[in-house]
Amino acid sequence: MHEPINWKDSYYYSKDRIVLTNEQVPVPGIRVLAHHLMTSAIPALESHYHENCFEFTIIFEGVFTFQAQGKNYTAAGSDIFVAYPNEVHSTNQVPLSHGEFYWLQLDVSSAENLLFLNRSAADSLIRCLHNLKRHIVKVRDNDILPLLKTAFELSISKESPYLIASYLVLFFNRLIGLSTTEHPLSRGIYQALNYIYDNIQADISLETLARYSHLSIPQFKVRFKQEVGISPRSFINLQKIEAAKPLLLEGMSKTEVALQLGFNTSSYFSAVFKRYTTFSPSEYIKRHQNS
């Protein structure tokens, strides 16, 4: 087993992945502000930590698994995963599925001038962040995610660090305020989820799910993504892939698994499987046979 590493991101810029460091975001305390848009899965994150640094992973789209303190956490759209300073975390060998997220690292080794705040305000912010005492914060709120996105876009445009910091201070304070808010599922979406779980082997239509939710199809798609954090079709595919894994390891062929789980062809099943896991079905089987 590998020892956790003290991970430090470096500046990176591509169409789908942008990592800005304090050199590009000259705001005291900001170590990294980054964005990643993934059209397919990428390998799992190994165990690592960030010295004296909070890390906030803000999910805009998709479902991701994280591990901290030996416990797994699932984060979906509009969820924020919090890794505390020096806390070892990973994705527990689970690939990062396709989706979109931002991440933000805040160095709290010194409160002096943190985010351009005075000492009293900086001390209060650090204390409140430590007191979150949870790893998943659900923020189904229309204003908090745009705050971070705006701070990122201002950083790309090399706007005033003071302006960028003002958005980040608002983001952190909204995060703290929303950390105690619960977001129960509506009855209609709860019924739709149960239908998906109970009929995972069927070809599940959005029309059927919308009917169970007593909504039109457009209303259902919007409500589902708001409450679950991912589109209905992506959620269904994820559940089918999870159901496929044990069937493949039990010796069923990919054609048999595809037919059992309602995929039209084995090639389409293989493409979806790789999109969500980074492995083809045969690669997945070999990997587990050798582990």
TrEMBL record:
Gene3D superfamilies: Homeodomain-like, Jelly Rolls. It comes from the Bacteria. Residues 190-287 form the HTH araC/xylS-type domain. The keyword S-adenosyl-L-methionine does not apply. InterPro entries: AraC-bd (IPR003313), Homeodomain-like_sf (IPR009057), HTH-like (IPR037923), HTH_AraC (IPR018060), RmlC-like_jellyroll (IPR014710). It holds the Pfam family AraC_binding. Keywords: DNA-binding, Transcription, Transcription regulation. The keyword Glycoprotein does not apply. GO terms for molecular function: DNA-binding transcription factor activity; sequence-specific DNA binding. This is AraC family transcriptional regulator. It comes from Candidatus Blautia gallistercoris.
